[in-house]
Write a structure and sequence with these properties.
Largest sheet of chain B: none
Shape of chain A: globular
Oligomer: heterodimer
Structural class of chain A: alpha+beta
Structural class of chain B: mainly alpha
Distance between the termini of chain A: 12 Å
Strand content of chain A: 15-25%
CATH class of chain A: Mainly Alpha
Radius of gyration of chain B: 23 Å
Mean pLDDT of chain A: 83
Mean pLDDT of chain B: 82
Shape of chain B: elongated
Largest sheet of chain A: 3 strands, antiparallel
Radius of gyration of chain A: 14 Å
Low-confidence stretches of chain B: none
Number of domains of chain A: 1
CATH topology of chain A: Arc Repressor Mutant, subunit A
CATH superfamily of chain A: Winged helix-like DNA-binding domain superfamily/Winged helix DNA-binding domain
Number of domains of chain B: 2
Strand content of chain B: under 5%
């Protein structure tokens, strides 16, 4: 069963930030600073978008020695296509099945 | 101090996310260092906790965690308070006439008074022990330490049997235990329910977990 969803304002902000440099891996805290979203909003969004196949995540080596590896994110092809539609056309409807 | 509180909140968030979201818990923990550098660890940790709690109802492990905390905070802690209250109540009633007197006008039985007075310390210790074990049980349940939960349960059963024997033989009165036995039965059923749920959620958990 497909479910209609409209991207929220916060999701649009995140899509905009991620689609600015689609090939670049971005860290969670940098995304928070860029979008102004708090961790309580950003992480549920990232979790949901990763589950839907819009975002891919990867562990990256730390910039400073002694620090833990950091999780980095970027849009998938489906995510890029969705971001183009969503950010240019405003809030739209999409089906969960299209990302399966 | 603020950093320690932030780390504790982040740790709570990580625990709330459950094993199927372990990767996200590690991701939050790694980003916490960036938040510390930015001097905003508290806000970041509170956000992570909020995010974890938003996710908690969406997976079976999360629902189990909520149920476990509800049992610990909603039943076991009040049960511990009930034991302490019983102990205090028992101590104050010990000043009155001996328990189980046949009638108000009957002569006090010196042997009965002596035996009851001798039993008061052990009964008091048993009630206080029951209260303490309930607090431990609540903690172990929150920790998910099932071998120790089984040990706590055994200790509660042993203390309850001791209490019943002393109350019936020495005090000739089991009425203070009626409500307690009913509450313990409910508590026991709830713990068994949670343990079965735990086994459903973690079917590959070691079978030694409950018997160790």
């Amino acid at each position: 069963m497909s479910r209609n969803r409209r991207p929220s304002k916060q999701m649009l902000l995140l899509l905009e930030a991620l689609s600015a440099r689609t090939q670049q891996w971005r860290h969670g805290y940098d995304l928070m600073k860029e979008t102004g979203l708090l961790s309580g909003t950003l992480y549920p969004l990232l979790i949901r978008m990763t589950d839907q196949g819009l975002v891919e995540a990867e562990w990256r080596e730390p910039e400073h020695p002694g620090r833990p590896a950091r999780h980095a994110y970027r849009l998938t092809h489906a995510g890029v296509a969705f971001a183009q539609t969503a950010t240019h056309a405003g809030p739209i409807t999409f089906t969960k099945g299209s990302f399966a | 101090m603020r950093s320690a509180v932030s780390r504790a909140l982040l740790s709570l968030a990580n625990r709330s996310l459950g094993s199927d979201r372990r990767m996200w818990a590690m991701a939050m923990e790694a980003e916490f260092e960036a938040a510390v550098d930015d001097r905003r660890p508290f806000l970041f940790a509170v956000g992570c906790l909020f995010a974890a709690w938003r996710e908690i109802g969406k997976h079976s492990e999360g629902r189990l965690i909520v149920a476990t905390y509800a049992l610990a905070l909603g039943i076991l802690i009040p049960m511990a308070a009930l034991q302490f209250q019983q102990a205090v109540g028992f101590l104050s009633s010990a000043d009155g006439p001996p328990f189980g007197m046949p009638s108000a006008g009957a002569e006090p039985n010196l042997y009965l008074i002596w035996s009851q007075n001798s039993a008061i310390p052990i009964l008091l210790i048993t009630w206080l022990l029951l209260g303490m074990v309930h607090l431990c049980l609540a903690w172990m349940l929150a920790e998910g330490d099932w071998p120790r939960i089984v040990k706590c349960g055994t200790l509660i059963a042993a203390a309850m049997i001791t209490l019943s024997l002393f109350m019936s033989v020495l005090m000739l009165d089991l009425s203070p235990l009626r409500a307690q036995v009913a509450a313990l039965a409910i508590e026991f059923a709830a713990v068994v329910f949670i343990s079965r749920w735990h086994m459903r959620v973690f079917p590959n958990a070691s079978p030694e977990m409950l018997t160790r």
